[in-house]
Each structure stands twice: as structure tokens, then as C-alpha cells.
């Protein structure tokens, strides 16, 4: 969903992250976007830790290409610090 001037409107982006759980987000208010990292994608009998980074801005997702990406852990904590750097800590490795 994308927040419009008066309410919610359904967004239908063509590019988007896979369906997942335990992903983390951080809000970059200066750039006006949300950053999504990691999570777990499930298929029957199998769980896969994701380690991709996406940004949500103006109703669409963009796959980010950062210089470094943290290890594929889930349930991390994430914040955007004063220097506009996403900081992640903690996490767990899912084995199925």
C-alpha cells in the first residue's frame, strides 16, 4: 500500500522482493524511502535466508546494489543512523 494525500491506494509494482517473513526495515526520511533487508522465504519443507536489499519509494520497489551486504541472517534489528547508514545487529541462522 502507498500512502496518498488523503488515504491508502493499492500499489502494484512489477519488481518486488519475494514473499518473506522476519525481514527488517529502516526508514530514510531524508530520501523519503524505506529500506528492506533479509528475511526468510518459505517453500514446502524448505526455508531460505534472504540477504537482498530493497528500497520502497513513491509506490515502487528497487533492488539496491550496496557495496557490502551483511550475512544472510534473519530477525536482525535495523536502524538508519545520523549518517544515513543502515546499521544491523544480531540475527539468527535458520536451518530446516
Describe the structure.
- With 96 residues, the chain is mainly β.
- The chain has one domain.
- The protein contains no helices and ten strands.
- Strands 3-4-7-8 form a four-stranded antiparallel beta sheet, with no helix packed on it. It has a two-stranded antiparallel sheet with strand order 1-2.
- Strand 9 (77-80) and strand 10 (86-89) form a beta hairpin.
Order of strands side by side in the largest beta sheet?
3-4-7-8
Helix and strand pattern:
EEEEEEEEEE
Helix content: under 10%
Overall mean pLDDT stands at 77
Q: How far is the N terminus from the C terminus?
A: 32 Å
Structural class computed from helices and strand pairing:
mainly beta
The number of distinct β-strands equals 10
Low-pLDDT windows of residues: none
Strand content: 35-45%
| DSSP helical segment count | 0
Multimer state: single chain
Name the shape in a single word: globular
Radius of gyration: 14 Å
Tally of separate domains? 1
How is the secondary structure organized here?
Blueprint: E1 2-3, E2 8-9, E3 24-28, E4 33-37, E5 40-43, E6 46-49, E7 53-57, E8 60-63, E9 77-80, E10 86-89
Antiparallel strand pairs: 1-2, 3-4, 4-7, 5-6, 7-8, 9-10
Question: In summary, what is this structure?
Answer:
The protein has 96 residues and is mainly β. The protein has strands spanning 2-3, 8-9, 24-28, 33-37, 40-43, 46-49, 53-57, 60-63, 77-80, 86-89. The strands form 4 sheets. The chain has a 4-stranded antiparallel sheet with strand order 3-4-7-8, with no helix packed on it. Strands 1-2 form a two-stranded antiparallel sheet. It has a two-stranded antiparallel ribbon with strand order 5-6.
Amino acid at each position: 500500500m502507498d500512502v496518498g494525500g488523503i488515504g491508502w491506494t493499492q500499489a502494484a509494482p512489477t519488481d518486488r522482493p519475494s514473499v518473506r517473513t522476519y525481514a527488517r526495515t529502516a526508514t530514510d526520511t531524508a530520501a523519503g524511502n524505506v529500506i528492506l533487508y533479509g528475511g526468510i522465504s518459505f517453500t514446502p519443507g524448505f526455508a531460505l535466508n534472504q540477504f537482498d536489499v530493497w528500497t520502497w519509494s513513491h509506490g515502487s520497489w528497487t533492488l539496491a546494489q550496496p557495496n557490502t551486504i551483511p550475512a544472510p541472517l534473519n530477525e536482525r534489528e535495523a536502524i538508519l543512523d545520523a549518517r544515513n547508514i543502515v546499521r544491523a545487529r544480531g540475527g539468527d541462522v535458520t536451518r530446516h
